[in-house]
Amino acid sequence: MKIVILGAGGRLGAALLREYREKHDIAGFNHAQLDLASLGDVRRTLDAMDFDVLINAAAFTNVDASETERDRAFLINADAPGILAEICNAKEAKLIHFSTDYVFGGEKRAPYTEKDQASPIGFYGESKLAGEKNVLAAGNGHVVVRVSWVFGPDRSSFVDAMIKRAQQDEQINAVADKFSTPTYTDDIARMLPQFFNRRVEGGILHFANTGRCSWQEYAQWALDCCGDAGIPLRARTVGALKLSEMKNWIACRPVYSVLSTAKYADLTGTPPRAWREAVADYITRFYSQK
Ligand SMILES: NC(=O)c1ccc[n+]([C@@H]2O[C@H](COP(=O)([O-])OP(=O)(O)OC[C@H]3O[C@@H](n4cnc5c(N)ncnc54)[C@H](OP(=O)(O)O)[C@@H]3O)[C@@H](O)[C@H]2O)c1
Q1: 287 in active site
Q2: Which of 26, 37, 167, 230 is 20 to 30 A from 130 (CA-CA)?
Q3: Phi and psi for 35 in degrees, rounded to 5?
Q4: Which residues of the chain are modeled with pLDDT < 70?
Q5: Separation of 126 CA from ligand 1 center, angstroms?
């Protein structure tokens, strides 16, 4: 199968490239190699290529910068995915486009399903929701995969920042009143091929590790795993911060954005593994060597 991966220099894109490199005919583009803000370049480059699946893991992911650079966020997160879907239609290729739990407003207290109404409260989420709509409007069996709190070895994320802080400081804190679920890039990379040749009813699929946690619980579990793996830390416990104390954040963020993976489990017969298991696996595999 011929696969093109956009965002191949990012946390998720790099993991996908690693996982598929040996099994498929892969071409990957990082930001410097193909800028999604240059729609003409995107068309010219991809029109000239032959592929079966195009995976878009590129995005303007800075939630706060999306508030001040709205046009740019919209161009990359909404306009470009629509163009990608058109390019795929012309080739009868499939587009797999990644989106986010931030398309939800956070008012629910039970996991969001694919049928729940998206109502973002920040411009990042708005731009990503517009991108989803552009992809789905193009038809042709494209898939939007929403993921949450993505972590993995290819680019530092919240969990890495917490571990680093715990190595430097005796007291660390994290927000305790905001809930979602961490999602391991390796788990995304391993599950995704099931959808290379498969239509998903409604076009949207949620994937995250199972369970839910606050950032404080997530960070505490990471420190506990480091303790078990013998990784030296100065801080052992994570104190609680309130979302309302995060004065330097520009964008509003949903307080609850847990994604239901029931549809994924129904389609594949296997639920994703629990977030604690995925984080423990990440820390033992990659952290103890750092
Ligand atoms: N990270 C999360 O917690 C999270 C949560 C929910 C959903 N998601 C979604 O998951 C997907 C993958 O995110 P990620 O975690 O891998 O984030 P990431 O590490 O920030 O990766 C995004 C990649 O897109 C690239 N990019 C940005 N602007 C671009 C442009 N104009 N043209 C081409 N490439 C561009 C970035 O390159 P530069 O860094 O060089 O700009 C980066 O390599 C995205 O769709 C994101 O919305 C992520």
Answers
A1: no
A2: 26
A3: -95, 115
A4: 289-290
A5: 16
